[in-house]
Amino acid sequence: MALPWRHCWRWATGSTRTNLLETICSFNGSSATSLLRGTGTATGSGNEGLSSRTVHATSLGNSILTRHKSKLLYPTPKPCYCKRIHSDAKLKDPFTLAQKDLNHLYDDIKKELFVSKSELKSICDYYFDGKGKAFRPMIVVLMARACNSHSNRDGDLLPGQRSIAMISEMIHTASLVHDDVIDGSDKRRGKTTINEVWGERKAILAGDFILSAASMALARIGNNTVVSVLSQVTEDLVRGEFMQLGSKENEKERFKHYLDKTFKKTASLIANSCKAVSILVNSDPEVHEIAFQYGRNVGIAFQLVDDVLDFTACASQLGKPSATDLKLGLATGPVLFACQQSEGVDQTNYLAQHYCQEAIRQISLLRPSLERDALIRLTQMVLTRDK
């Protein structure tokens, strides 16, 4: 059964839905067309755009062909990617494929967080109980292996690549601990939050300690470029949190603000972690860009779906209270679309589908491998998840 894409790059010329999406057409002086071509920088402000209705698949496809026709990477990409999606039967389950590389993930994290003070150790180990989905490390190890295969390198992951997968989970978890304090949350991953059990002060200190341990592990990789790339994640997390505290009056600026915040708070970690593992095995900036753009687009799609689930899923599914963002007065995709007198949930899902299509376009530029195809399959899982 083919993945359930109903639109391709031609959606911009004939879909009635695009009228509702034209408010997101140009950010930071870059046209929507250039953003869809993937011509943004790999350092990534996270600013995103959608195609205006005048963009035609042929011209977009030609720009892709021109940019990637030489040494990249895999048979020349075609403008309509929905026809090149693999069938489910041919695609490996991403979690199963990454499992071998993640078997010791939480044990390794606990070693990094080893302290003699029992209470701090208990707090730090609280979410690293092996019951998490390890979504971000899973993407990182699949991207690492996809880039290794593209670079004709077989065998185990490089030690630095394995460390980056671990570091990504540590940074993510530390950010959750801090978020729960800021939001006053009492549930996370089906458990009482750290701030509810140990109090806000100790929760903040524990989050800081996890971040410091991640920074030390990052320094041991010994690659200055990788350190710089992953250091950007922490800055983005803080900036994104501050952005969440504010809003914009203008309708177009509100959506730009929302997507930029979404990149910084969610997608930056995935994008920069993917870029970091590609740097360790390949010196080609275009490969780094592919890895970054895949992570960025999947990360934004993941958060868009998360924002939908905040409205549509019950608390038992989510493992945390539902409608949290709405109660906090945060304007997410469904709310912003609803303000345009449109179907907020449907439009947000449609926008998430767009980002997944772009993620597929990017990763398809690498040479075929089981891990590359698993990353394609992952986009379907992002769109269809219910928790």
UniProtKB/TrEMBL annotation:
Q: Which Pfam families match?
A: polyprenyl_synt (PF00348)
UniProt key word RNA-binding: no
Checking InterPro entries in the record gives: Isoprenoid_synthase_dom_sf, Polyprenyl_synt, Polyprenyl_synt_CS
GO biological process terms held by the UniProt record: isoprenoid biosynthetic process; ubiquinone biosynthetic process
A cellular component term from Gene Ontology for this protein is:
transferase complex
Q: What is the required cofactor set for this protein? A: Mg(2+)
Please indicate if the UniProt record lists Magnesium as a keyword: yes
Q: Which residues form a coiled coil?
A: none
* Record keywords, A-Z: Isoprene biosynthesis, Magnesium, Metal-binding, Transferase
Q: Which GO terms describe its molecular function?
A: metal ion binding; prenyltransferase activity
The record's similarity note reads: Belongs to the FPP/GGPP synthase family.
Give the protein name, as stated in the record: Prenyl (decaprenyl) diphosphate synthase, subunit 1
Identify the species of origin. Oncorhynchus mykiss
Its gene?
A: LOC110535188
